[in-house]
């Protein structure tokens, strides 16, 4: 999947992550099991919301403002933001979460 150049530049600036690596990590850590994620093969999950258009969302998980720091924290350990969320901690590191966040911010 090719990224819109403007979206990619913005995502990298916001997160200091690599969207290409983030797409790979989203698949590796099982995000596709729960979410539909454009550009991630087999990502047709129906448990969590689709991540299409994620960059334009105001909230993460319905509780945190969609900011790079909150998103990285949410990806790494969502229960530190919302203890009642159904989203599990996957064991992803903070550095890896930064790359996944970069990928999500390319999704318009």
From TrEMBL:
It comes from the Bacteria. InterPro entries: Cyt_c-like_dom, Cyt_c-like_dom_sf. PROSITE patterns: CYTC. The keyword Ligase does not apply. Keywords: Heme, Iron, Metal-binding. Residues 17-108 form the Cytochrome c domain. Pfam families: Cytochrome_CBB3. This is C-type cytochrome.
